[in-house]
């Protein structure tokens, strides 16, 4: 007997990519369980699937940075008490990425690159340990949202958030719609999607001089003020620090909540189209976001 649940959850996360850098992503999870019927004449109660398995997936990947441990660019080092970790991703030509964060901010994937299959294998191993004995098989599938327009991949951190959004390097694959005088503007949508493709959206309040950060020895060799920007903040979960290439960074004067992003885009577009009513619908991953007018 098989039990299926489509749209079990959406994983919003970022991952390290040798070519693209730090990439924000949103993947939808579908699941199929194989097994014999239990004493309730069920493979597993839907409530447990939606609550227990979703919680495992969220704890394992959601709002984390996925690190490909087998890639030659990757180096991981624990601090003396094992509560925080340095992650160095030594991309060449001034494009390296460096983090110092609490251990829970990362998911370490034993693969050379982060792919859907690599993440499926990682999640299957974690979930199967928690399933009852009558559940003999587990199928996971991951997919992206079908978007009839333009979108961008962004990474950010929300230091004021009291949940996992405070992690400095988590992200989203996000749709954007823009209208002038209630008429949709695909040209503007494409313009901003291109400008923010694979971007880190940082807040000016969190910018710190690169030499002031807790850099590993590798980071000291690979990062300079001319090529990189540094961020640091203390949130409820601990100290978060990140160094990213300036070419892959976009600085905001505000926080990087989706509300602030939508407002920023509306104001920027209004400056170029002052005689028209601007509407921006900015998504944060799948099926949620903010609307701003100017």
Automatic annotation (TrEMBL):
It comes from the Bacteria. One of its GO terms (molecular function) is 6-carboxytetrahydropterin synthase activity. It catalyses: 7,8-dihydroneopterin 3'-triphosphate + H2O = 6-carboxy-5,6,7,8-tetrahydropterin + triphosphate + acetaldehyde + 2 H(+). Its EC number is 4.1.2.50. It holds the Pfam family PTPS. Pathway: Purine metabolism; 7-cyano-7-deazaguanine biosynthesis. Belongs to the PTPS family. QueD subfamily. This is 6-carboxy-5,6,7,8-tetrahydropterin synthase. It comes from Idiomarina tyrosinivorans. The lineage of its organism: Bacteria, Pseudomonadati, Pseudomonadota, Gammaproteobacteria, Alteromonadales.
